[in-house]
Design brief:
- The complex is a heterodimer of chains A (265) and B (211).
- Chain A is mostly beta strands and 265 residues long.
- Helix content of chain A is 14%, strand content 53%.
- Chain A has 5 helices and 15 strands.
- Chain B folds into 2 domains: 28 residues; 161 residues, Porin (Beta Barrel), CATH 2.40.160.20.
- The chains are: A mainly beta (265), B alpha+beta (211).
- Chains A and B meet through helix 2, helix 3, strand 1, strand 4 and strand 5 of A and strand 1, strand 5, strand 6 and strand 7 of B.
- Strand 4 of chain A pairs parallel with strand 1 of chain B, so a sheet runs across the interface.
């Protein structure tokens, strides 16, 4: 799919919105102020159930009938805290799940449909964050990464990995470009290319190592699989071949396997 | 004549129908109309609180190096009602081994090497529930189990660390929670002679905000 210059090189406005939102919600007072804005919906199905907490296991404490209005106060994962309109017995607060909220309509008569938490919204994601665990040269490794999804095929990101072995401690970061081959598939392969730096420090107890920590440039090429699980949750499996450009005669050839999960927004 | 009969029956038929129409209109009007101005809703118009951030304080028993107070920060992202991802960072200062105390000899570690710090990323599973302090004083709560990996810096080295934990979260309000948690940090160490897997059990209290 051809993308215009603007689509490729300028972050989508929703990214700015997300950043601003995160910043805003950091302040608790502000988040309270946001909650004060009222969002009201009308039930279109025979009834919806209000639970006492944001999970299916919490008991149903109230039932709101068709044509009644509820105020949506806040959400936690796929659950929404709502309040009934003040009646003879006062108002009732409870939690409804997302499917129940989809049985309502807005004041303009539009059915409420929140697109997030679906494979469709996965296709429209802007950023991914995640953590992966695995093996780097047979040593346990941990990676955290953040990716910005530029187009449905291309994304750019950074990752930081720490691999702690018996002989040395390795830390490296990579700036990567990723190409997802079949973005419309739930399970899709991807390829990555990256460049960064690696810092290797011999263990303190190795007397013979004697050396200080050394830093080398690093190049990486990788193959991976990503799988959309549900909501805003995905799995990743990746193999990376890395070249550490040392100042010795030979470059170091390194391998990394990793498996992990990511969330997207 | 025939037309007269027909129109009579037609009128007879129309009367109950018009009544039911009127009744329907009445029913429509009787719906309570909220006085607040309404608008269309989408994801961004609802304040979502899936992130949790807070502080924790507790005691960590550092194997062979006695117990110390630990201070940390905790951040979590709630993926769905069951699962969450949690990252914690903590700092403590290790004490002395019993050998150091008894012999009064040279210390194993320098002061700097006694600084103990860790970070870990865990996947957690909630056992959601309610806590009844009295019949009418009820709070939502969750007992949770976590499993994760991370790193511990101690004795001049950083070690790959596996963590297994369990905790209890009491939601005093929708956005403020108290935690009681226990976590075992497992890593290999050879600070005391030969290499072994050490268990460093931490327990403590935490307070977090959802935003």
């Amino acid at each position: 799919m051809l993308m215009s210059f603007k689509q490729i090189f300028l972050p989508p406005p929703s990214l700015f919105k997300l950043v601003i939102e995160v910043w805003l919600t950091c302040a608790l007072m502000v988040s309270q102020a946001l909650a004060d804005e009222t969002v009201q919906v009308q039930i279109t199905q025979p009834y919806i159930e209000l639970h006492s907490g944001p999970a299916g296991g919490f008991p149903v404490i109230h039932v709101v009938a068709k044509n009644e209005w509820i105020t949506v106060l806040k959400r936690r994962t796929n659950w929404f805290k709502v309040e009934t309109i003040k009646g003879a017995q006062g108002s009732v607060q409870g939690w409804v799940k997302q499917e129940a909220l989809h049985m309502t309509q807005s004041s303009t008569g539009q059915p409420v449909k929140l697109s997030d938490g679906s494979f469709e919204s996965f296709a429209q994601r802007n950023v991914e964050f995640g953590a992966l665990g695995g093996s780097f040269e047979s040593v346990p490794s941990m990676t955290i990464f953040a990716d910005w999804v530029a187009t449905e095929n291309l994304s750019a990101g950074i990752s930081v990995t720490q691999a702690l072995g018996d002989l040395s401690e390795n830390q490296f970061f990579l700036v990567t470009v990723k190409h997802t081959t079949f973005p419309e598939w739930r399970l899709s392969p991807y390829i990555t290319l990256g460049a960064g730096k690696i810092r290797t420090k011999p263990r303190a107890n190795l007397v013979q190592a004697g050396g200080e920590a050394r830093t080398s440039d690093l190049l990486a090429a990788g193959l991976g699989l990503r799988y959309y699980i549900a909501q805003n949750f995905m799995l990743k499996l990746e193999y990376q071949n890395l070249q550490a450009l040392t100042n010795r005669d030979e470059n170091e050839d390194l391998e990394q396997w990793k498996l992990g999960f990511a969330v997207f927004f | 004549m025939e037309i007269g009969f027909r129109s009579f029956f037609l009128a007879l038929l129309c009367t109950p129908m018009s009544f039911s129409l009127l009744a329907q209109q009445d029913a429509d009007q009787s719906v309570i109309e909220p006085s607040v101005e309404r608008r269309d809703i989408n994801e961004s118009s609802i304040d979502s609180e899936n992130f949790e951030f807070g502080l924790l304080v507790g005691v960590i028993s550092i194997e062979d190096f006695s117990s110390s107070m630990v201070l940390g920060v905790r951040a979590a992202y709630h993926v769905n009602e069951d699962f969450f991802v949690e990252a914690t960072y903590g700092q403590a200062e290790a004490g002395e081994t019993s050998f150091e105390v008894l012999s009064g000899g040279a210390p194993f570690l320098t002061d700097e090497e006694r600084d103990y710090s860790y970070y870990n990323v865990s996947l957690g599973y909630n056992l959601n529930g309610e806590t009844f302090f009295t019949d009418r004083w009820v709070f939502n709560s969750a007992t949770y189990l976590t499993f994760g990996a991370g790193s511990t810096e101690f004795g001049g080295d950083e070690r790959f660390t596996v963590t297994i934990g369990a905790g209890y979260r009491l939601l005093l309000t929708d956005f403020f929670a108290l935690h009681i948690n226990m976590k075992d940090h497992l890593f290999n160490s050879e600070l005391i002679g030969e290499e072994k897997t050490t268990h460093n059990i931490e327990y403590g209290l935490g307070a977090t905000f959802f935003f």
